[in-house]
UniProtKB/TrEMBL annotation:
Keyword flag Isomerase: no
Xref: SMART domains: Resolvase (SM00857)
GO terms for MF: DNA binding; DNA strand exchange activity
Resolvase/invertase-type recombinase catalytic domain segment(s): 3-138
Listed InterPro entries: DNA_bind_recombinase_dom, Resolv_N, Resolvase-like_N_sf, SSR_resolvase
Source organism per UniProt: Hymenobacter metallilatus
UniProt xrefs under Gene3D superfamilies: Resolvase, N-terminal catalytic domain (3.40.50.1390)
Keywords from the named record: DNA recombination, DNA-binding
Leader sequence residues: none
Protein name from the UniProt record: Recombinase family protein
CDD domains on file: Ser_Recombinase (cd00338)
Length: 220
């Protein structure tokens, strides 16, 4: 029975933690292997497709060599959109197969890699051109002044809703409320939250003002 070493890549830590994208890749890999293969140790990479620093991919390749197995990827674009990177993997001597292109050969993999890179470069150029055109019209890029009052209000509402529904924020809010009821100052509450490992929605340490905002959201 053929031995497969699964390799998965997600673009963000959030995707990795939530399973978004990762579970779909796993489903494709397991479905592929059911046809007559045995899955070995799996390797998960959290990295943008634009970057080629892939320690987990290197580990997966080493494992495939060790057991004489084949690297198994759900979709070829989970490897990279950089043609040179895919060519290097192709020429590394490690067998690999993609669930979405099981019959791919050296030629088709090379063509797909070139097309994928061209697509990435085209999207990037269109984005740059659009931003430059907007800047030429006098817009200040990256500033709230470009947003309508309605968009600003909607964005603020979404941020507040995220903060209220975030589990860690809810736990921090409950602890802050209890400490406030016991007579602790905002500074003392901030210290306790930080010591307990809690962080603000943006991943920052708590300060008296951020504690005050947290308590206000609880009472809102």
């Amino acid at each position: 029975m053929k031995k497969y070493i699964p390799y998965y890549r997600v673009s963000t830590l959030k995707q990795g933690q939530s399973g978004l994208g990762l579970e779909a890749q796993r489903a494709a890999v397991h479905s592929f292997a059911e046809a007559g293969g045995q899955l070995g140790e799996e390797f998960v990479e959290v990295e943008s497709g634009k970057k080629n620093h892939r320690p987990q991919l290197a580990a997966a390749m080493a494992e495939a060599r060790r057991v004489g197995g084949t690297l198994l990827i759900a979709k070829l674009d989970r490897l990279s959109r950089n043609a040179g990177f895919i060519f290097a993997l192709r020429d590394s001597g490690v067998d690999f197969v993609c669930c979405d292109m099981p019959d791919a050969n050296t030629l088709t993999v090379g063509l797909f890699a070139v097309i994928a890179q061209h697509e990435r470069e085209t999207i990037s150029k269109r984005t740059r051109d659009a931003l430059q055109a907007k800047k030429a019209r006098g817009a200040r890029l990256g500033t709230p002044a470009n947003l309508t009052a309605e968009a600003v209000a909607r964005g603020q509402e979404v941020r507040q809703q995220n903060a209220r529904t975030n589990q860690a924020n809810r736990q921090a809010a409950r602890l802050a409320s209890l400490l406030q009821a016991q007579g602790h100052t905002l500074q003392q509450i901030a210290h306790e939250l930080n010591e307990s490992g809690y962080r603000t929605r943006r991943g920052k340490a708590f300060f008296p003002m951020s504690v005050q905002r947290l308590l206000q959201r609880v009472s809102a």
